[in-house]
Design brief:
The chain is α/β, with parallel strands linked by helices. The chain is about 40% helix and about 25% strand. The protein has a single domain, classed as Vaccinia Virus protein VP39 (Rossmann fold, 3-Layer(aba) Sandwich). The chain has a seven-stranded mixed sheet with strand order 3-2-1-4-5-7-6, with helices on both faces.
């Protein structure tokens, strides 16, 4: 009987989970900060974080808006266990893939994904799921590292060759095109540096009524 190969992203983060916050502290804190600078979040919003990892963005939102309704989804049980320790009862956490979200249609006011797009094997399906679960006039915000920067292109080439978890990085124009093909209306498209190595992009799109 043939064996099913383990999911490379789950395997990667099962291994990295207990050193992730320490190892990636600067990157995570800055990427969360820059994302939240670019998207308006209201205390009454219902927010879904896709690829929530150890819960850094969810915790930052909880600190800003103590009563906000938060849900996090991640493919790694180990990362979610750490998020649960941080957040306690402060968020609903689900083990799931971005390509198959375990939530009903049009539940959320805001869907956020930070530093996860380059892992998605089927980004078209992931965007369709984001669109499905966000309400009409709700927003989808995505931050990831950007292939428009030479450092991003170099990292993408190296990781495509040597890291099975990595899928591909995108330029800002490619990300905008994917959003438009998904039937979403981009309202913010921005690329920026957080240090000499990391060049990021944040895109925010609106789900317009059918």
């Amino acid at each position: 009987m043939s064996q099913i190969a383990p999911d490379p992203v789950r395997a990667e983060y099962a291994r990295l989970s207990y050193q992730y916050d320490r190892r990636w502290s600067f990157y995570v804190s800055r990427s969360v900060e820059e994302t939240l600078r670019r998207v308006s979040v209201q205390p009454s919003d219902r927010v879904l974080d896709i690829g929530c990892g150890t819960g850094a963005l969810l915790r930052s939102l909880r600190q800003r808006h103590p009563r906000i309704e938060l849900t996090g989804v991640d493919a790694s049980a180990e990362m979610l266990a750490i998020a649960a320790e941080k957040l306690g009862q402060g968020a609903r956490l689900c083990l799931a893939s971005a390509q198959r979200l375990p939530v009903r249609d049009e539940v959320f006011d805001l869907v956020i994904s930070t530093s996860a797009l380059h892992y998605f094997r089927d980004p078209t399906r992931a965007l369709a799921e984001m669109k499905r679960v966000v309400r009409p006039q709700g927003r989808i915000a995505i931050t990831d590292w950007c292939r428009d920067f030479w450092t991003g292109r170099l990292l993408d080439r190296l990781l495509c060759r040597f890291n099975a978890a990595h899928y591909r990085a995108y330029t800002l124009a490619q990300c905008a095109e994917m959003l438009q093909r998904a039937g979403l209306h981009p309202e913010l498209l921005e690329r920026y540096k957080i240090d000499w190595l990391w060049g990021l992009m944040t895109v925010v799109a609106v789900k317009t009524p059918a």
